[in-house]
User: Which sequence fits this backbone?
């Protein structure tokens, strides 16, 4: 009889690209399922802080990087948010990754490089506003996007032209902005509602 340990099970989930089965909590499943089932389109999660939406987005991104060769950009308004919040989430998830599947992190590129050629790049928009440009992007996430002051410019001048001949999945998770006249509220929310790719969850859903 073979003794199967928890580590063996988690390693098998990594190999299948199904680590969400281990890391996604019950209250996070509606968001996780929406992101997974949405094809090439925008997804706008309107979700309170401390919900774990960043963990959901990183988990989904890592799954995609394992299943097929992907180019993922994960952006925040400020580089300090990448270093203090997003990278620790990445490293926590990767603490259970099998050694032969472990991506190499290159500080100079702020990127994780997976053995199969996938790349997961972290971008602080205040230091590198052009970091979300690229001809081969598969997934773009702009975390707390309602607090990115130039989101309208980024969307219209960088994101839309990039998707003109190659649609990719764009996720705009955020808590509501301080003022309702933000581009995230005025244009992205209505667009996502029409497409069925909008989700709203409060702290009470946690």
Assistant:
């Amino acid at each position: 009889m073979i003794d199967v340990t928890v580590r063996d099970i988690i390693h098998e989930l990594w190999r299948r690209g199904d680590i969400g089965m281990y890391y996604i909590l019950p209250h996070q499943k509606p968001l996780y399922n929406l992101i997974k089932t949405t094809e090439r389109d925008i997804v706008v999660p309107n979700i309170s802080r401390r919900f774990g939406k960043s963990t959901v987005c990183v988990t989904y991104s890592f799954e995609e990087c394992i299943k097929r060769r992907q180019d993922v950009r994960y952006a925040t308004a400020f580089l300090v948010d990448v270093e203090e919040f997003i990278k620790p989430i990445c490293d926590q998830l990767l603490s259970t990754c099998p050694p032969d599947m472990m991506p190499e992190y290159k500080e100079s590129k702020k990127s994780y490089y997976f053995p199969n050629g996938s790349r997961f790049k972290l971008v602080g928009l205040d230091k590198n506003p052009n970091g979300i440009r690229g001809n081969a992007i598969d997934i773009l996430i702009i975390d707390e996007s309602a607090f990115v002051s130039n989101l309208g410019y980024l969307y219209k001048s960088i994101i839309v032209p990039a998707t003109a001949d190659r649609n990719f999945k764009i996720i705009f998770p955020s808590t509501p902005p301080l003022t309702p006249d933000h581009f995230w509220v005025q244009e992205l929310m209505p667009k996502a509602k029409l497409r069925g790719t909008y989700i709203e969850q409060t702290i009470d859903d946690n």
Summary: The helical segments are 6-16, 20-23, 29-37, 53-67, 79-94, 151-162, 183-195. The radius of gyration is 17 Å. Strands lie at 42-47, 71-76, 104-106, 111-113, 119-124, 139-142, 169-171, 198-201. The CA atoms of residues 40 and 167 lie 6 Å apart.
